[in-house]
Specification:
- With about 100 residues, this protein is α+β, with helices and mostly antiparallel strands.
- The protein has one domain: Histidine kinase-like ATPase, C-terminal domain (Heat Shock Protein 90, 2-Layer Sandwich), CATH 3.30.565.10.
- Helix content is about 20%, strand content about 30%.
- The protein has two helices and four strands, in the order E-E-H-H-E-E.
- Strand 3 and strand 4 form a beta hairpin.
Amino acid sequence: MRISARLASRPTAGAATGTAGATTVAVAVADDGEGIAREHLPRLTERFYRVDAGRSRRLGGTGLGLAIVKHIVNRHRGALAIDSEPGRGATFTVYLPTA
């Protein structure tokens, strides 16, 4: 797992009105795991959504983690971006406005 932080421009997709391109702090968490198929990416932040429900239940997952992250980030006028490719891992990036 890798964690990084940098100054960045806010992503335009899903950005609140008037904030696209604004300066933000981007905090990214990346891994080299099995990755997530593209068709699952749009639904990952839905409450109780699980890519692999059987495995998640065995390991104790509820499907709430990313939904909670999304709501916290939205409350702070931020954005969440998820990028993944099967076999190459995933990167979860939180964009938060600078003070």
